[in-house]
Amino acid sequence: MSTDTSSDPPSEPPAPSVLIAFAGHRRIATGTRDEVLAVLRAQADGATAVVFEQDSGTRVELDLRPEGSGPEHAPDEAPARGVGRPKLGVVAREVTLLPRHWDWLSRQPGGASVALRRLIDEARRNYAERDSVRAAREAAYRVMSLLGSELPGFEEASRSLFAGERARFDSYVSDWPADLAQYVRQLAEPGWDASTPPSA
Fold it and tell me: Which of 65, 83, 136, 175 might form a disulfide with 191, Cβ 3.0–4.6 angstroms?
């Protein structure tokens, strides 16, 4: 079902991501994609650096080959035109539901697409704090696992992170290399309960 009678306003273009690159436990670059690429290409250990999107802790793969040296795409390899309204930020993807779900959606004003967007927006508002806490803890753990799994106290720090025990978490990562400790603390910050004070 693809009925879509919404009149959502055009979405704002996303701000350029800030990336952060580590060589081992040492931060060697922070900046836009082009800025980080320039630093990594100029450094001997740039090829082995691990790069993350700074705010989310998501790993980013960068092509360190010089500009213009990548494979060229043939003209007939242009991506096929997708379904949806991409100029408005509306993208069509497959959703699998049971018949009773489709039946309920078909009776909603505006059709299935409008109803689903409304339900998702309501859930995002209702669970925003919980989702923010979970995302922060998962982001910190993602970086810890990639860069610090061999460091002393890693297992204990991980358990403390997901248990919401800020003071214990800080005590374990305080002995880690400074750049890594600072970054995982930054990522974990939204994951602490508002009533949990920072450690002294």
Answer: 136
Considering Cα of 42, then 65, then 67, then 86, what sign does the dihedral take? negative
Query: Which tokens in the block code for residue 45?
Result: 């250990």
Q: Write out the H or E segment, with its range, that includes residue 185.
A: helix 178-188
Give me the helix-helix angle, 112-126 and 99-106, nearest 10°.
100
The beta strand positions in 36-194, using DSSP E, are 50-53, 59-60, 84-85, 90-91
Residue 149 in tokens:
């799994």
Query: Tens-of-pLDDT digits for all 200 residues of the chain?
Result: 444 444 455 555 566 789 999 999 999 999 999 999 999 999 888 889 999 999 999 999 998 887 665 555 444 444 445 555 556 667 778 888 888 888 888 888 888 888 888 878 886 776 667 888 999 999 999 999 999 999 999 999 999 999 999 999 999 999 999 999 999 999 999 999 754 555 54
CA 59 to chain centre: 8
Cα 9 from Cα 88, distance rounded (Å): 7
pTM reported for the whole predicted model: 0.68
Structure tokens at 141: 């753990």
Distance CA 20, CA 54 (A): 5
